[in-house]
């Protein structure tokens, strides 16, 4: 390995080693699941239509998990993502209804779709910005701030619609969630594009590194001239936008928008994010890991449904996978023996390093 | 100069180590506002009702407090709670006997502690991140409960528990409506005192704070960290078991689908109460105030005349406002402390 | 397409499969599994399977969330069953998925979703508005035709619940001018404790309240607890949708006055029977007799030609509770 | 009494200890000396049961074992003042001092009054001032160090390890500590003392053990060593130790001009200039306001009054962003908290301050340039680590400090402010770090060194400001910069 050939941002951190290891472990798990179920239910699990099904379901949960991952990079969390997704969907749907969009066709429909999706995402951006404001400027702990806004955004959605679902989107919009290109759902393509863009943002832009640094040690970040507030604001805008895009996919797949969709996604998104190797205390996490984790869990869930196992057994399996992956990691770490134990995510920093938002004058 | 410093110190004392003062003040402000909007708000019946609504959450929150102070987090406790509560009833039913109140409590506590030990074992034995372990186990526990123990709503509780369901400490007749204070406030208050004593006055309790302050230092100081963590998660399970059987008793039925999903609310109440999500900080008083503030917010909207469709939004607004006030208060306190420090440096 | 209110005349979709019963596979997807209501429905499905020799089973998710149900159905599509029955958590969220299922040649029959578009047929136990009116009529006779009442729904987003409540309100306005509903529908979040809290708040806020209408199965139980604790069992009428196992104890002590429901076993059997008729090319139309109690003469919905009503509402009070062991 | 036999310990690719043996006798005061990263702390951790050795034996009170745990060690009478203090930031000083004995004695209950009384007694015995009810996180670094010392003295120890106990202490407190060591010695307690301050080493210890690269290279009575031979034993070369302040253009327009700077309760009426290439020292006793001046210049706690000019233009420093924008860099004294991202890589730490300067035209990071920057500083500052991907936590103190320096040098600041830049840094590294400062000044940067290490100031500074009670008490410059003149300025 030549020094100059090494690239600063890709070989960051131990991380490097640790993340690679968790990535390869995830990959092995994914393959095991794939092969296992293909053998157990030949013809059904490994059918094109089933993979298509998985490709249809991954984007929503995948995007929400990525949002959680981004928030966790800074040591925070965003519990309002599902509410933001629904708010986005409702905005778009309301605009379509108001514009009589269901009847629109051709270029007009495409134009409306672009316009109204943009409006929906703007709402997501604003919602994310407000989260960021609470966290970065007011200084509310992220879990509290977003628990509040989760209720608030959901409440706004209920008050706005009176609780009813909204219909009336044109086919041009619904195509996003329903159509396929060369057998691949458009929503999955969208998901991959967004994931790649996010990976570029996190790995190749200054912001990505700053995000991890703020998560790793906010005080040192301030002392390095990083504008923590701005970074945190941006973080929650990004999580909001990711949630918003998930909302658009949800609405286009469901052909409707409702304030109550996706409540079960929140905990699942957290599970996927941590299974994907994200450290909830900040500083570590990769897009690829989260994507792999999302695909793996969706495959397991499909496999269980196909094998006619009960949903309760799937819940158990999901928990077992999470714990087993972690235990294997720990055992592996020990077996590597005398090597330095990589710092446990939980180990608080050594004394003297008080992880506290740095005193910010003025 | 000197008086200024005294004032600052005095104000800090009033705020409390974990900002309990600000929280109490926030509650007073919210109550005052509600009373202005609707004078009927300020009644014994409202008070009792809010207290009753906080009982189960408070017990859960005590467990969450312990685990958060220790620097960990547990999201499996509501599932442990309902697991213990529901399973206790199932055992009583299938065994065809009435365990009585104490018997039921004992069963629930044993089940809760065992499940908590599973968490603790995984966390302490393998040194795993607590959030991940408890996310995993909550799925496992819930799945096992619904798949193998039962998923049905049980309407008929064993007689002892059923009777306790409607036992009040005292009743105040107010016009048409009777204000009732459920007898469970007694054990809950005792539990709060016990946990406070445990955390403040025992080597175990200080060890919990030490662990949350700096785990490596705790190890170096000779704290048996593994045993400590085992005990912490077992204790969380135990408290969850108590909360679970209380929940079943208060709702007068056993429904295994309930409670799951309330974890984030309760964690938020504890954090609102001044516990640091990073560990090492938190108090029973703050926790109770946090739970009460959220209960006040959630359970007064009809009295306030908020229309049905706006209630969720109103809860959101009040929550956001509440946590913001709390955060701003905490920030002031930090600023005040710095001023005092500077002065002392010069003196 | 078929304005006549007849479905199934053109034979089964997906070509003339003309399958023998033992080659058919029906799957009924319910809101969530494991609860008493849907366990009872599963009994109906099993009875149907036993009676016809068709492989009919029931499945669902572990909680009542629309996204999980979507996933269950999507995974079913890969297995290509002959027909699926669906009791949607959120009809609108299922449209695209059901369309995909039908594109794959799978028959779709729904229940509790009279506005679902991508179906071959929908069967309802009754007309929701009429059912709501029936509940409020019961409440009116209990309240003596006048006074304040409050209505609960499981979720403000639950369309059927809203229809029961609004149908009831229209009925009261038209027939009992002395009756007033005090607030917008109150949301219990399908949670008995929430219903209990809200009922207590309502009793405190409206001292003259005389009646409650519940919609989620646990609403009336929660309300009854509040009423009982306030010592108002005899002054306040509590009625609404529930199931006997939940309401029994309160019906017996009088804090619930009457519950309304339909038998999920019969509804499940009705769905499966319609699926079978469609699969074998028999039509379903106005007046069709499914040979199931409550579904002896189906009515076509005036708004949706694919939706059919039975007349299967059941009223239960203290006197006849023992006839319904679920 | 306590002996190590052939102890080895490996961390990943680093052989931290390689067959180290050490004998500690009752009443001995033994100094462990050696460069950063030579394994001193690791040896202490192994002897106190915190780390487990790969090979070797520990002999304690006649029994031999291959490993220990902390509780065993505590019960055997081994007390440690850890280099990182290992305190509980969230507990009070009293609890930090007096809690550990309760565990060792297997007590179950805590009596806060007795606990506080015990802590008070220890603090009184040492003769220092500590607020027993303050939480440790509110304390200054010096007070934390005192707390750690008090904790080690709370229990009657048989062997007392002190891993750099004096880094943050003032003369007076160091004296008090030495008196305690002397008393303990008379009582038969053995002390093992680690310090990079060679004068201290020579003063306090009876025996000296010098380590290099994980092995013992010299051992003997203290009389056999002097500053030079000790330095040579540690580094394997001669350590230069005389004044070397390279010339600069004194007539050039100042790169930094400070006028009438003031902050309530901290400092008042502070004015000075720094020319390009000049190295200005600022010294003063603890609490004199020297650190606060540095923090005000960097906007951490901005001044309330006065003006600051950088490169001739006035700048209003209201926060760190203003200071960074104006071209001021700052190396904080508390590098663990404020300077470094411990779990992150060297690479990330080096570029943490200059990410925005490494954008390509697309706005994304120019990865090639970024890699060049990292490798340049990694090499130029001679950071000792297996690779730039190694996490900072695994580096020794001297190397960590180089990374903090690299972070700011990567921004090419106009003014570089360093607060206690060589605390806990070994003599060899210290000289190299000072050389880095000289080189940096040579490029026209104005350098301000805030320090109470007088030899260090004499070594590099062109001019030294002595601060007392928040005011500039004296300016010492040119040839007058000597240890004596500074000491005089501090104490007169
Ligand atoms: N936990 C760890 N993981 C990886 N490497 C470590 C760890 N602890 C120490 N090391 C490495 O072991 C070597 C010895 O470190 P040690 O802390 O004992 O040095 P030291 O002599 O105390 O240095 P200093 O004077 O800077 O305190 C160093 O190279 C260090 O990087
Ligand atoms: N329960 C306690 N809480 C706080 N501090 C204690 C407690 N017990 C002992 N200590 C403190 O620890 C120190 C050492 O304990 P040790 O057992 O030697 O004391 P002691 O005076 O012999 O106590 P006792 O008389 O209870 O045995 C004592 O000086 C005491 O101040
Ligand atoms: Mg060391
Ligand atoms: Mg004694």
Q: In words, what does this structure look like?
A:
- The complex is a heterotetramer of chains A (362), B (347), C (326) and D (492).
- Chain A is mainly alpha-helical and 362 residues long.
- Chain A has one domain (25-335): ABC transporter involved in vitamin B12 uptake, BtuC (Orthogonal Bundle).
- Chain A is 69% helix and 1% strand.
- Residues 1-17 and 337-362 of chain A have low confidence and may be disordered.
- By secondary structure, chain B is mainly alpha-helical.
- In chain B, strand 1 and strand 2 form a beta hairpin.
- With 492 residues, chain D is an alpha/beta fold.
- Chain D has helices at residues 40-47, 70-75, 93-104, 112-126, 141-154, 171-186, 198-204, 227-235, 290-297, 320-326, 335-339, 346-351, 367-380, 397-409, 427-442, 454-460, 483-491, and strands spanning 2-11, 14-24, 29-34, 55-60, 63-65, 78-81, 159-163, 190-194, 207-212, 215-221, 256-263, 267-274, 279-284, 305-310, 313-315, 328-331, 415-419, 446-450, 463-468, 471-477.
- A 6-stranded mixed beta sheet of chain D has the order 6-7-8-3-9-10, with helices on both faces.
- The longest helix of chain D is centred in the middle third of the chain and has 16 residues, at 171-186.
- The interface between A and B is large, with 57 and 64 residues.
- Bound molecules: adenosine-5'-triphosphate (2 copies) and magnesium ion (2 copies).
- Residues 40-41, 83, 163 of chain D line the site of one magnesium ion (MG).
- Chain D: InterPro entries: AAA+_ATPase, ABC_carbohydrate_import_ATPase, ABC_transporter-like_ATP-bd, ABC_transporter-like_CS, P-loop_NTPase.
- Chain D: It comes from Pseudonocardia kunmingensis.
- Chain D: One of its GO terms (molecular function) is ATP binding.
Number of domains of chain D: 2
Main sheet of chain C: which strands, in order across? 2-1-3-4-5-13-12
Structural class of chain D: alpha/beta
Give the integer mean of the pLDDT values of chain C.
87
Uncertain stretches of 5 or more adjacent residues of chain D? none
Q: Please give the most extensive interface between any two protein chains, plus how many residues each contributes.
A: A-B, 57 and 64 residues
Q: What is the number of helical segments of chain C per DSSP (H or I, 4+ residues)?
A: 9
Question: What CATH architecture of the largest domain in chain D would you give?
Answer: 3-Layer(aba) Sandwich
Distance between the termini of chain C: 39 Å
| Shape field of chain C | elongated
According to DSSP, the number of beta strands of chain D is 20
Protein name (chain A): Monosaccharide ABC transporter membrane protein (CUT2 family)
Region (Disordered) (chain A): 336-362
InterPro entries (chain A): ABC_transp_permease
GO molecular function, one term (chain A): transmembrane transporter activity
